Amino acid sequence: QSENSDKSSAESDSETEPEQASVYHKLLATLRTSAESESEDDDDESESEEDGESGTEVDSEESQENEEAEGAGEDENDMPDKEEATAEQTLGGEQADAADLSCDPSHGATEEFTDVKHESEFSLETNFMEEENGDCNADERRSNPFKQHMDKEMEEKEVEKLSTLSKSSSQIKWPRLGQLTFSSTLEKQKTLKPDKEVDLKQLHLHKPLEVTWPKVNKQLLSSLNKSCDSSFTPLQRELFCIMNTYRDLFYPERTALTNGEEIRLAYCLHALNHVLKANAQVLSNNAKRRDRKPGIDTDEYRDQGLTRPKVLMVVPFRECALRIVHNLISLLEVNSDKKIDVSNKKRFKGEFGSDPEEKPPNLKRPEDYEAVFAGNIDDHFRIGVAILQRSMRLYAPFYSSDIIIASPLGMRTVIGAEGEKKRDFDFLSSIEILIIDQADIYLMQNWEHVLHLMKHMNLLPLDSHGVDFSRVRMLNLNNWSRYYRQTLLFSALQDPQINSIFNKHCFNYTGQVAVRNVPQMGSISRVVVQLPHVFRRLEAESLTSVIDTRFQFFTDKVLPEYRDAIMSHTLIYVPSYFDYVRLRNYFKKEELSFVHICEYTKKASICRSRRFFLKGEKQFLLLTERFHFYKRYTIKGIKNLIFYELPTYPHFYSEICNMMKATDSGVDATWTCTVLYSKYDAQKLAAVVGIDRTAQMLQSKKNVHLFITGEN
Question: For residue 534, what is the domain's CATH number?
Answer without folding.
Answer: 3.40.50.300
